[in-house]
Amino acid sequence: MSFITVNRLWKEYGSTIVLENLNLEVEQGEFCTLVGASGCGKSTFLKMLLGQEGPTRGELALEGEEFPGEPDRNRGIVFQRYSVFPHLTVRQNVLMGLELEQKPFLGKLFGQARRQALEKVDAMIESVGLAHATDKWPHELSGGMQQRLAIAQSFIMRPRVLLLDEPFGALDPGIRGDMHELILKLWRETGTTIFMVTHDLQEGFYLGTRLLVFDKVRNDPQQPEAYGATITYDLPIGETNGQLYDSIESSVSKTARNLSA
Ligand SMILES: Nc1ncnc2c1ncn2[C@@H]1O[C@H](COP(=O)(O)OP(=O)(O)OP(=O)(O)O)[C@@H](O)[C@H]1O
Fold first, then answer.
1. Ligand 1 centroid to 71 CA: how many Å?
2. Which of 124, 158, 192 is the last residue of a domain?
3. In a domain, 11, yes or no
4. 194 and 131, same structural domain?
5. pLDDT on residue 256
6. Per the structure, how many domains does the chain have?
7. Residue 38 beta carbon below 6 angstroms from any ligand 1 atom
8. In Å, what is the CA distance from 11 to each residue of 46, 58, 102, 216, 249?
9. C-alpha 215, offset from chain centre
10. Residues in domain ABC transporter (predicted)?
11. Pair 100, 201 in one domain
12. DSSP alpha helices (H): ranges in the chain?
């Protein structure tokens, strides 16, 4: 049995078909990168993995069990725009998840439990390279630092599945390189299964162990909502040649032009 099974999965909103007939088996610890034209349903797929959206038809299973219909601590997400709490310091932002997990009603830890939690928090802050900024507020941090904080917030909860929705899309190229090394380090250390959406095919090839291309095989210009996207390529990284790269890029660009026409 695979860790994650996606079997004949469809997602529709009213008469709009967003995703059609997705089939996928993912093992624990894989790093899947998702690329595709804007509007092809990549974020919708992440929302289904998170439990924010349910399938219209088909099966989505975690270790053979139906995916929980609500987000839970097994699954974390990092968005492109910083999702940290502006009224909490770096340390408080990372501590918050542990406090809510252990004290769901009070949201506060005391004494020994708090000291133990803070040890973990400080180790995580160090691990993402923010040790010098522990007591700073989010507005005092650069974009890259805020994303480091969002990543720390997610990893401290030790999610089994981590969803990254264009997490580096708003960052400068130089900073993106540093973030790539950070995410690869944390992924190797934790063995978390990652799904990451990116618009950058090169980033997808560099980071993932597996590249999933979401694309529309059929497109009716008169009725763009009549057909959904599906997974047109599922490539183990390292076995891809330049010709295939060019053909993915041209197919995704063609769909992007159709969708924005
Ligand atoms: N709640 C909703 N109700 C109706 N339509 C929706 C809803 N959520 C998403 N959609 C539609 O589903 C399609 C896919 O959107 P989605 O955001 O998943 O695409 P995407 O591939 O992630 O795009 P991008 O790369 O621009 O973020 C879009 O046409 C969008 O309008």
1. 19
2. 158
3. yes
4. no
5. 79
6. 2
7. yes
8. 12, 9, 35, 14, 25
9. 18
10. 4-241
11. no
12. 42-50, 90-102, 111-127, 143-155, 173-190, 201-207, 242-260
Asked whether 143 lines ligand 1 (CB < 6 A), one says no
Provide the CATH number for the domain around residue 223: 3.40.50.300
Regarding the beta carbon of 224 and ligand 1, being less than 6 Å apart is answered: no
Cα-to-centroid distance, 89 and ligand 1 (Å) = 33
- Among the candidates 158, 177, 192, a domain finishes at 158
Report ipTM (2 d.p.): 0.94
Spacing of C-alpha 78 from chain mean position: 6
Residues 170, 69 share a domain? yes
pLDDT in tens, 200-248: 998 998 899 999 999 998 877 777 788 899 999 999 886 556 677 777 7
What's the CA gap between 149 and 166, in Å, rounded?
15
Taking the C-alpha atoms of residue 222 and residue 213, their distance in angstroms, rounded to an integer, is: 24
**Is 192 touching ligand 1 by the criterion CB < 6 Å?**
no
pLDDT, residue 2, reads 93
CB 164 within 8 A of CB 196: yes
Closest-CA residue, ligand 1 atom 28, reads 39
What's the domain range around 109?
85-158
Ligand 1 atom, smallest distance to 14 CA:
4
In a domain, 79, yes or no: no
Same-domain status, 170 and 238: yes
- Mean pLDDT for all residues in the chain: 89
Residue 261 has a pLDDT of 66
